[in-house]
């Protein structure tokens, strides 16, 4: 394949090709949110929603940068895995549908400084309630609904910033790949398939995975 050099970045030197293949989009969107827009600092609190592809990287990146990570999930088993990846507090959003109240309890009423929003829809109003003052919600996805009703009073009372995020730009991706040689993040790869097994790989993807599915052309 011939590509313009502006369309490529170097892989982290310490990563294998399979690890590097996981980085564009789901991983990088978190770096762009938390670092470029959020100026994340050690000790900040970050709320991560669910344990999908974006969110697993959100846990790993935020905790590698010294943040305290709170994760929601529908599954206690996945919440245990989230703890192994660096989450310090967890909430099952099926047993606690008012998860924003749990976030406030877990942060002694202070709220979190960053929310990587992948759910959208009715979750946005809850996310505003889970925030600290003058901080960020990064709208990365809308798994529930593309439309959201926002109480403008809650928004102004919190002086919240709701930031739309569409992956990120070239310079920030280069910063990210360089940083990965310094911070300790091992991308979660659920299964590696060969190209001959591509159909199984996509079927696996469709039924859901914990982490990335990789198709390795050299396998
Ligand atoms: N803006 C961008 O640049 C960008 C980049 C990448 C992805 N995206 C978008 O980001 C979203 C997430 O992508 P993904 O690849 O991470 O998706 P995914 O892997 O399909 O995420 C699925 C997980 O999301 C969680 N989830 C679903 N509904 C939920 C709800 N109502 N409340 C809390 N968690 C819920 C569940 O976690 P549990 O099983 O733990 O409950 C589910 O397993 C998608 O909308 C995608 O299009 C945007």
Give your account of this protein's structure.
It is a single chain. The mean pLDDT is 97. Helix 2 crosses helix 3. This protein starts with 16 loop residues before the first helix and ends with a strand. It is globular. 38% of the residues lie in helices and 21% in strands. It contains nine helices and eight strands. Strand 2, helix 4 (76-84) and strand 3 form a beta-alpha-beta unit. Bound molecules: NADP nicotinamide-adenine-dinucleotide phosphate. Residues 25-26, 29, 49-55, 72-75, 78, 93, 118-119, 140-144, 165-167 line the site of NADP nicotinamide-adenine-dinucleotide phosphate.
Write the layout of secondary structure elements.
Layout: H1 17-20, H2 23-37, E1 45-49, H3 53-64, E2 68-73, H4 76-84, E3 89-92, H5 99-106, E4 112-117, H6 123-130, E5 131-139, H7 152-158, E6 161-164, H8 170-180, E7 189-194, H9 198-207, E8 212-216
Parallel strand pairs: 1-2, 1-4, 2-3, 4-5, 5-6, 7-8
Helix pairs in contact: 2-3, 2-8, 5-6
Bound molecules: NADP nicotinamide-adenine-dinucleotide phosphate.
Residues 25-26, 29, 49-55, 72-75, 78, 93, 118-119, 140-144, 165-167 line the site of NADP nicotinamide-adenine-dinucleotide phosphate.
């Amino acid at each position: 394949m011939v590509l313009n050099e502006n369309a490529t970045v170097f892989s982290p030197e310490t990563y294998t090709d399979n690890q590097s293949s996981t980085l564009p989009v789901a991983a990088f969107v978190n770096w762009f949110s938390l670092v470029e827009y959020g100026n994340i600092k050690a000790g900040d609190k970050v709320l991560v929603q669910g344990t999908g592809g974006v969110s697993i990287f959100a846990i790993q990146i935020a905790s590698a940068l010294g943040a305290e990570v709170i994760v929601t999930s529908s599954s206690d088993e996945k919440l245990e895995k989230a703890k192994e990846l660096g989450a310090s507090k967890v909430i099952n959003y099926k047993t606690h549908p008012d998860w924003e109240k749990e976030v406030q309890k877990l942060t002694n009423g202070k709220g979190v400084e960053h929310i990587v929003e992948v759910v959208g829809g009715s979750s946005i109003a809850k996310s505003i309630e889970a925030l600290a003052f003058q901080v960020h919600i990064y709208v990365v996805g809308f798994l529930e609904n593309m439309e959201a009703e926002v109480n403008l009073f809650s928004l102004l009372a919190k002086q919240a910033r709701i930031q739309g995020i569409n992956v990120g730009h070239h310079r920030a991706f280069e910063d990210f790949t360089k940083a990965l040689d310094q911070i300790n993040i091992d991308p979660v790869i659920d299964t590696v398939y060969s190209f001959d097994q591509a159909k199984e790989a996509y079927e696996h993807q469709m039924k859901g995975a914990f982490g990335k599915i990789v198709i390795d052309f050299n396998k």
